[in-house]
Specification:
The complex is a heterodimer of chains A (175) and B (249). Chain A has 10 helices and no strands. Chain A has helices at residues 7-11, 15-26, 29-46, 55-73, 78-81, 86-89, 102-114, 118-129, 134-141, 145-174. In chain A, helix 2 crosses helix 3 and helix 9 packs across helix 10. Chain B contains 8 helices and 7 strands, in the order H-H-H-H-H-H-E-H-E-E-E-E-E-E-H. In chain B, strands 1-2-3-4-7-6-5 form a 7-stranded antiparallel β-sheet, sandwiched between helices. Classes of the chains: A mainly alpha (175), B alpha+beta (249). Chains A and B meet through helix 1, helix 2, helix 3, helix 4 and helix 5 of A and helix 1, helix 3, helix 4, helix 5 and helix 6 of B.
C-alpha cells in the first residue's frame, strides 16, 4: 500500500519558491525568513484541509497573505517597510564602462525591482520567475484576468523606466 | 485596432496569453504598423533580461533547518518552544528597538513619517488583497451615508466629474489608532486611496513623499487632514490633489 506523503515531503521542495516570493515582497532577508516560517506554521495548521492539488500554488498563496498581514502589523517600524535593499543599492562599479558584465546588469535589475510597488513586484515574480500563467496568477491573487494583464504590462513599463534611471545615474557618476 | 489599443495587448501577445480573437486583430495591426513592431521587438529583448539573470533567492540554510525541525517536531505532536530556540530573535528585537529609538531622537517629524508609511502599506495591502472598497458606489451621497455609519465623524465625500478620475467607492481604515475615511478613485489602471479625517490638533503640512515605489501627498484643508497614495506619476497625482482641493473650496 503506498504511503501518504507527509507535510514535509509535499512542501519542503517548495521552500525556495516560498522564500523567493517573500524576499521579493518584503525586501529584506530577515523579514522574509520570519514570514516564511510563519507561513509554514499556517500551512501546517491548514494541512488537514489541503486536497493534494497544486501544493506550490497553495503554499505561495499562504506566503503572500502572511506577508501582507505581516506588513500591516509592522507598519509602524518604518525602516522595515521601505524595502530598499542596502546591498543592492550601493552598487560597486568596478567593471570598465565598456564591458557591462552580467553581474552589474543583475545588480541594476535587482535595484530597479526593489524600487517598484509591491503589487508590481509580485506579478513579476510569479510570472517571470515562477513561470505561472495569467490564469494561475489571477486565481491566487483573486483578481480578474484583465487585471493581471494590465498590472504585468504596467510593471514592466515601470521597471524599464527605473532601469533607465539607474543607468543614467551610473553614467553620470562615472563622468 | 489602433496603436493605443494595441499597446495594451502587446505584453500579453509576447507572453502567449492573448485570446485568439484579439491576437488576430493585433497581428493585423502589426503588419501595417512599424512603430508597434519596433516596440514589440524592444519589449521582447527587455523581457529576456529575466531569463539571463539569476534573480531567484535561495532559502538560507538556517531557515531550511528551522522549518524542517519544526515540521518534524509538529509531526511528533510535541509543543515547540518558539523563543527559546531562536536566541537571535532577542538580538533582532534589540536592534529594532535601538533603531526606533535613534529614529525618534533624530527625526523631527517621526509621527508624520509613521503615518505615511501606514497609509502606503494600507493602500498596498488593499490593492493586493482586492479589499479596496467596503462600499462600492460612484455616488457621493450613498458613499457618505454608508461611511458615516462606521465613523465617528461626518466624512467629506466628493466625486470628480469631468476629470479622468472616477470614484470607485470607499472603506474605513485605522491609521495611528484613529478611524479614517478612505475614498478610492481610479484613473485608467491606476488607483488612488485618499485618506481623510478631522484634524484635531495637528495639521498635516503640504508635502510629497515617495515610499516603496508609491507616491504619497499630504495636505490639510477644511479642518481635515488628507493623505493621497497611488502608483500615479508625480504629475498625475498633483493633478488629482488639485482637483480635490478645488472641490473643497
Amino acid at each position: 500500500m503506498p504511503k501518504t506523503p507527509s507535510f514535509e515531503e509535499i512542501f519542503l521542495p517548495h521552500l525556495d519558491a516560498a522564500y523567493n516570493l517573500a524576499r521579493w515582497i518584503l525586501g529584506t532577508e530577515q523579514d522574509a525568513q520570519d514570514v516564511v516560517q510563519e507561513a509554514f506554521a499556517r500551512a501546517w495548521k491548514g494541512f488537514p484541509k489541503f486536497r493534494g492539488e497544486h501544493p506550490r500554488a497553495w503554499l505561495l498563496t499562504i506566503v503572500r497573505n502572511t506577508a501582507y498581514t505581516w506588513i500591516k502589523k509592522h507598519a509602524s517600524d518604518e525602516q522595515r517597510l521601505v524595502p530598499f535593499d542596502e546591498e543592492s543599492c550601493s552598487v560597486a562599479i568596478e567593471a570598465a564602462p565598456s564591458e557591462l558584465g552580467l553581474d552589474r546588469r543583475n545588480q541594476q535589475l535587482r535595484q530597479a525591482l526593489n524600487r517598484l510597488p509591491a503589487e508590481f513586484r509580485e506579478v513579476l515574480v510569479l510570472f517571470e520567475m515562477e513561470g505561472w500563467s495569467y490564469k494561475a496568477i489571477a486565481t491566487t491573487l483573486g483578481v480578474p484576468l484583465g487585471t493581471v494583464m494590465s498590472r504585468l504590462s504596467r510593471a514592466r513599463r515601470r521597471l524599464r523606466e527605473e532601469i533607465a534611471q539607474i543607468q543614467d545615474r551610473e553614467i553620470e557618476d562615472e563622468m | 485596432m489602433k496603436c493605443d489599443e494595441a499597446s495594451r495587448f502587446l505584453d500579453a501577445y509576447l507572453d502567449r496569453e492573448l485570446e485568439a480573437g484579439k491576437r488576430f486583430e493585433l497581428e493585423q495591426h502589426l503588419t501595417g504598423c512599424g512603430d508597434c513592431r519596433t516596440w514589440l521587438e524592444q519589449q521582447r529583448q527587455f523581457i529576456g533580461i529575466f531569463k539571463a539573470n539569476a534573480l531567484y533567492y535561495q532559502a538560507p540554510a538556517e531557515l531550511r533547518a528551522r522549518v524542517q525541525r519544526r515540521a518534524e517536531t509538529d509531526s511528533r505532536g510535541r509543543k515547540f518552544i518558539f523563543l527559546a530556540r531562536r536566541p537571535w530573535l532577542y538580538a533582532a528585537a534589540l536592534l529594532v528597538l535601538s533603531l526606533s529609538l535613534a529614529w525618534m531622537i533624530f527625526s523631527p517629524d517621526r509621527e508624520t513619517k509613521t503615518l505615511i508609511v501606514q497609509a502606503v502599506s494600507d493602500h498596498s495591502r488593499a490593492v493586493l488583497l482586492e479589499r479596496l472598497c467596503d462600499v462600492v458606489s460612484p455616488d457621493p451621497a450613498v458613499l457618505k451615508q454608508s461611511l458615516l455609519a462606521k465613523l465617528e465623524f461626518a466624512p467629506l465625500v466628493m466625486d470628480l466629474p469631468g476629470t479622468a478620475f472616477r470614484m470607485r467607492g470607499g472603506r474605513v481604515d485605522v491609521i495611528q489608532d484613529r478611524k479614517v475615511a478612505v475614498l478610492v478613485y481610479q484613473r485608467n489602471e491606476d488607483l488612488v486611496s485618499l485618506f481623510a479625517w478631522p484634524a484635531t490638533g495637528r495639521l498635516l503640512a503640504a508635502r510629497d513623499w515617495s515610499i516603496s515605489g508609491y507616491r504619497a501627498c499630504t495636505w490639510n484643508a477644511a479642518n481635515f487632514n488628507f493623505v493621497a497614495v497611488s502608483t500615479l506619476s508625480d504629475h498625475d497625482l498633483d493633478e488629482f490633489t488639485d482637483q480635490i482641493r478645488d472641490r473643497l473650496k
